[in-house]
Amino acid sequence: MATGTSGNRLRRLAIPTLVVALITGTTGVAGTASAAPAGSSGNGSGTGYFTAGSDRKVTLTDGADRRPGGNRAATPKAAADETGSGMYVVELAEDPLTTYTGGVSGLARTRPAAGNRLDVTSTPSQAYRRHLDTQRGAVAAAAGVTVNAVYTAAFNGFSAKLTAQQVSTLRADKRVRAVTASRALGTPSAPPAATTATAANPTPATPGGADQSAPADRSGRPVKPGPGTGAGMVIGVLDTGIWPESASFAKKMPAPATWHGTCQTGVAFVAEHCNGKIVGARYFADTWLAGGGSVPEGEVLSPRDMAGHGTHTASTAAGLPLSNVTIDGRRFGPVSGVAPDAQIAVYKVLWGGMGFDADIIAGIDAAVADGVQVLNFSIGSDLGDWEANTPIGVAFLNASLAGVFVAASAGNTGIVSGAISNAAPWVTTVGAAVTKLDEATAKLGDGTKLVGGSLDALPGGGARPLVFGEQAGSPDLGAVYCEPGSLDPAKIKGKVVACALSDMFGSAAEIKAKGGAGMVVFDPVGNYRINSIFNFPVVYLPTEKQAGTLFNYLMRHPTDATVSLRTGGDGSSVPGIPSVADFSSTGPDKVTLGVFKPDLVAPGADIIAAVSPAGNFGRQYDAYSGTSMASPYVAGAAAILRATHPEWSPGAVASALRTTATDTVGTSSPLDQGSGFINLPRATDPGLVIEPTAAELIEFSETAEPDGKALNLPAISLREYDGTRPVTLTRTLTNVGKARETYRSSVSGLPGMKVTVSPASVTLAPGKSATVTITLRRGSAPWDRYVTGSITWQGKAHSARIPVAARPWGIAARPYADDGEEFARMANGASGMVQPGFTGPLVGRSTGYTPMRRTSYSMPAGVYGGVFDPSATGVKKVDFTVPANTAGIVVEANTADPNTNLDLYLYKGDTLVYSSDRFWTSAEQAYKFLPEPGRYTAYVFAQYPGGPVVDFELGHAIIGRNAKYSGATLTLPSTSERGQGFNFTLKPNKPLAEGDFWAYTEYSTNGTVVPGNLVYTQQSSWQ
């Protein structure tokens, strides 16, 4: 498929106009981390996502992104680069209220004692705040700065529009800790058709609200308030605002005695909207207004939510229980927030799906000062956050130190391993899990059943005519996508239309308006599994394999294709329930060593909750998917734990949630699921907690290149450990149970590693702690790949489990995943480079070079722009056997005709090992390092726009690990130093024949063997 990146392939899908682009936006842009109907276009929601057809997967946007009734605003010109003029966040050197422990003459400590919360109304707080005001004024005056927003509670500093000279002046001032250019944050664009959604105007405030149905639990029984429902807790929601008229918030409640917040009125938002269930509401737009002058079109300057995302997250965390909700006339049953008796404090920090960190920090600062116990942050950065110590990260650290639990979304970039948002160790980072199937089956006329997803009512019954959109309209208008205005009513009336993935809302509206009977959506490059409600029969087939099957069926049956659509399937659309959602961002953290992310997963797919009618076709409730939906689930759970155990710190709450989580179906890897799937009943009585001290977190935050493995976290992450020597860590266990208990340790998984825990058992009285020493040694564990497992402390009444992931760094630093594609493994024999993860003497050896063996083939060309399927025209299948102890296999396909596109797929059985199909090119390569032995199949898929026959060559090399081929001399240094790259050459001992040659190298240090490279050369490299 085509992308917007220079040099990327221009692919077509049976028509001349299908162009699919990788959308990249403003550097540093981020957004709400929820996932919307695949096919929305725009830029990343805590994800950095892809639009239809780019690379391997496409647009997985967020709940607000996917909202049917609003478009993402353009970024106002307030952000700055690090050297130019613009808006900046200035952090001052003195502590904010949350962390000040004394030291200024005459000013008492304001940091709350353990178990207490910050009281901004106290005499010490008021006095210290006046001191901070004075110091801030002096710093600003010295630099000639006009202050914009002021921060004192969770962050000491201000935002301001600065010139380059003022930036330099402030950075030289010893009273200033950091000056950081404000980052733009935002949600991806809404679907194009969303602009036609029916808007809902705000209704007059009704004190207490009006229920659409009586408060009840999911079985319809009345709910009794108590600790188990979050009573007495306030959850702050940093998001797009709230729709206060929703039945999910329709309850009068008194404000807690410790509440210091306010109800900020504004356009379409009056004081009565803060009815107690909504205990407070504020909005923050100073930075936005400084750059843009006004809020985006469709927005209102108030806490009111015009998008839907903030309402959805708030009601997921703490919405009232309702016995039934109706969407577009269909009953979807009961809904409830996780903590239905918790109260909600609203902090609107995004406008039209966009905002700035300077305004978000103001929201965090206000939330901490107001007295929230829990914060939810369903916002993230493109392709993850790169550092924990951003201004937002610092504000969250200080909030945590003041007793505020922070839940945050991990991001929706499952395609990109390690692209974790909100990865700071003091934040509980939440991935998304699938907890219900919501399947549908499309049965083709030849009997093939394709199981996808749907939340719509499907007709069932007999088969209906099926037509491909490209064959039923104007290619120039995007009929392959079924874009608005592209289809011919005469050709689709009464038929189901198959459409390539684009804007699913727009496609469904087009087919419905033209008299079609339904829609089947397929994605030629594969996408995430996600459902939306279209109020029209829609089945979405997310996988590339399904796309190939459907597309090639349509090619074989251009006039007589049929399909039947029915609700339900065979469970094959997901590994099981619960399972990690494929869009959920995976770990480990890319930058910070020793930090495990995500922390855990929670329900985040097809979540029905309250929304803003203004942004959702007039709907009061809707289904969203994404880690944005999972994070408030954990926020609600944290509110329940804090109500049940008011003495627990945020770290203790996080530990309880993580050590009691259970494995998901389909993976037990902590890189995907973190500690596992949330188990709230167990978390209320975890037995043990493992939590870092405040001093540990502060030291981590102040270290230039921190390593979190020494933090007392309920996980162990060794991303780049030295496999030539043991790693020793400690963890401190605290008994939070009611009785004395003995816990015995055991190790599960971690193949090829020796793990010892000393002492092996500990006996603890309530409230007492013990420190254990954990030693991990590499045995036969593979280099440069993760092994995963866990350590469990089992007592008579409780158990606590922590995940472990360890990757010994051999010669490839920082591959963020072990997904089969090796990082820095291929090398050129004339100029190879290795970056070792060990220090010591160095020797090496090689197999010498073996030639790539090529065979010529000729076959009919496939459909120009078609979709791969093993049975399709234009596919050549070649089998070969890989013996045991093979270092690597390399497969190449090429043709002399530059107009021919080749794609190459390497399978082992039914498992895809490697695909090379991202660009329009006449040559492709696939490889696998240290492959499992067995039978492999290479598929070459050829498309030729100008003729019926394709001539090509297929070559492969199988490099044995201990083979001896044509001799070669390996030259390398005699010693290695961890992290310091060295060059090597592998020169043939005699001239090579014409063609391509491959070899394998490996290294050893003090007797420990480390796999090396697959090395390529041609004779011309040595002439």
Verbal overview:
The chain is α+β, with helices and mostly antiparallel strands. The chain has 6 domains: 86-181, Alpha-Beta Plaits, CATH 3.30.70; 230-436 and 578-683, Peptidase S8/S53 domain (Rossmann fold, 3-Layer(aba) Sandwich); 439-557, Glucose Oxidase, domain 1; 688-808, Immunoglobulin-like, CATH 2.60.40; 826-848 and 965-1022, Immunoglobulin-like (Sandwich); 850-960, Jelly Rolls (Sandwich). It is built from 14 helices and 54 strands. The strands form 14 sheets. Strands 7, 8, 11, 13, 15, 16, 24 and 25 form an 8-stranded mixed sheet that branches. Strands 18-17-23-19-20-21-22 form a 7-stranded mixed sheet, sandwiched between helices. Helix 4 runs parallel beside helix 10 (627-644). The longest helix has 21 residues, at 123-143. The two termini are 39 Å apart. Residues 1-72 and 188-224 have low confidence and may be disordered.
